[in-house]
Amino acid sequence: MLRSAWLLALALSTCAAEDWKPIFDGKTLDGWKANQNPASWSVKNGAITGDGEASHLFYMNEKCVNCEFKAEAKLNHVGNSGMYFRTEWGPGFPHGYEAQVDNTHRDPVRTGSLYNFVKVFEQLIPDDTWWTQHIIVEGNHIQIFVNDKKTVDFIDEKNTYTSGYLALQQHNAGSVVEFKNLMMKVLPAPRTPLAGRWRLNRDQSKFSVGEVPTQLEIRIQEERDGIRYQSASVTADGQKHGANYWARIDGQDYTLQGSPSYDHVSIQDAGRGAMHEALRKTKMSRKPEEHVFRVVTKKEQQVVGTATYTVSADAKTLTREGMVKHENRETLQYKEVLEKVE
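The chain above was modelled as a monomer; its predicted structure follows.
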């Protein structure tokens, strides 16, 4: 009995360890790519070392949607660096979240900060000292730990970045940073197929009145036991609009901000494989593997809009089809086709 319990405990601990995977082999930069000034990066004494002109080193083998990112770091006096996650590949300083690596640089935002979102001004780590920095990102919930001390516990209601690469920063000539024992853990994908960043395909969309927006982007992320929805659009006449809300997918009403046409929203999962009343009303047909949601918007407790949100079987397309009554009592029938942007 004791032997069986010991074997079970060993198996469980092995599985837990296997969740983490090394993303640096300790010898080469295989799997990593610099966006500029590649000479600023090398491997010395078993560590990725940044020393030279500004550059960012991306881990190219896998993207992070929900993940953990952990490394040991060491930084020289007045050095500056960072650990990026969900960041976009490209030149210059990346577009993505950054866990700050900065102990005595002239920039007062210190190690343990979520740059541009949560600032830590206390110096937690001395110069030329190894420490462990650990990032956890699930949906729009971000946590950062420095030597197991939590420095950030943040909900990004704007869903600023939803997917992207991991990367390391060499901030400037004179900074010398070292990273070793770099590890990544892939966390479960979002439970709802609505999660992601969606951008309007204008050519495939149509309005019964007026013109389709010139731009529309929707970001949906899981937050606690619901979703955070955030949109930004530009109409044909140049007006900017947006909406922001948190809601459970349970058919109940939740407060919505930012829209002049409605102030509450409800979302209900129509399920898979069966024809839903909402589909019959709109005379829509669907494929068995599509996922359909029923969305109702209200203004001062009166229904002003109904729609179906259909996520394609390959999860790459979101189609919103329905009607909405504007403040001028004009009814708009619309179909918007949005494509997932990584």
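The first helix runs from residue 2 to 19.
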